[in-house]
Amino acid sequence: MITDEQVKRLYQLGQQKLAASGHSDAPLNSQFYRGIGPHFWKGQHPGGCERHMTIFNRHHVIPRYCFGCYKVYIEPRTVIELLKLMMLFHSIPFPQDNTRKCIVELRENVSGAYKGFVYCTGIDEGREVEQFTRTAVSNEISDKIPVSLKRGCTEYAMAWPEYSPPGGEFPMQYPEAWQAIETLADKAFEPPPESSIIRTHNQPAYTLADARLMFAWLSYAAMIGDPSYLRISDVALPTTSNVTRPEPFRPVED
Predict the structure, then answer these.
(1) Residue 191: pLDDT band with limits 50, 70, 90
(2) If DSSP codes are grouped into helix, strand and coil, which group holds residue 254?
């Protein structure tokens, strides 16, 4: 079981290294990644997720590839649980070294605050990884943290609710008429340069970027009113600016 004290030690060590490096004021990020880069997912398009979202944003259709993309969705209830999930993603090998990430939610029209995702190609892999993740989260963090399976990106389901409805069933199939739109859109899309493609997000140890990220997450927690961050920082932190959430934070009682 990952303890609060382990989280606190990791945070404090990171802040000490940041201060010593002189990079403590570098731009803050909101997302933590481990696992293979998304360009190396099975059957992935050369343009990767950027290509898929570009087609969706411009033409309001979901690319064919995204009908086989599934995510195990973890909902930490506090910033401490988010940090523990980050440590879990860093330390535990997943079945296919699946891409996995932890985030604080910054989109104003999307509910929730703390989230984790494990990316899977296909429903069978999704269900296998869902069970693996649920067991790991229960054993290492808490059995009260919700773990579920969803399909594709939140933006897709907001536009097409039948694409990924609640409940774990995914009835919507790819409309074949959309293929002509994809084919036409690909003529105008330029894949990213190979030098920018990330093969793996794995690191042998936590980085200075991870330390900045932890500080950013605690500042976010201060902004939304999650008092658990004080157990890690020991002091009040400046809050993240220009971020609003569609629902208030609710304190957790185990």
Answers:
(1) confident
(2) coil
Distance between CA atoms of 64 and 176, rounded to whole angstroms? 9
How far apart CA 148 and CA 112 sit, in angstroms, is 15
Bridge partners (DSSP) listed for residue 31: 103
Rounded distance, CA 126 to CA 144, Å? 21
Phi, psi of 162 (to 5 degrees): -75, -10
What is the rounded CA–CA span in Å between residue 81 and residue 140? Answer: 10
> DSSP secondary structure string, 147-195?
EEEEES-HHHHHH-GGGS-TTS-------TTHHHHHHHHHTT--PPPGG
Cα dihedral 76, 163, 111, 85 in deg (nearest 10): 20
Give the distance from CA 216 to its chain's centroid: 15
Number of H helices, E strands in the chain: 8, 5
What is the token pair recorded at 150?
């969803």
Indicate the residue type of 176: E
- Check if the beta carbon of residue 230 is closer than 8 Å to that of residue 7: no
Sign, CA dihedral 225-118-121-187, equals: positive
H or E stretch including 47? none
- 3-state SS track over 209-246: HHHHHHHHHHHHHHHHCCHHHHHHHCCCCCCCCCCCCC
Give 213's Cβ-side CA count (13 Å radius).
19
The pLDDT tens digits for 121-155 are 999 999 999 999 999 999 999 999 999 999 999 99
CA-nearest of 242, 234, 253, 232 to 82 is: 232
d(CA 219, CA 222): 5
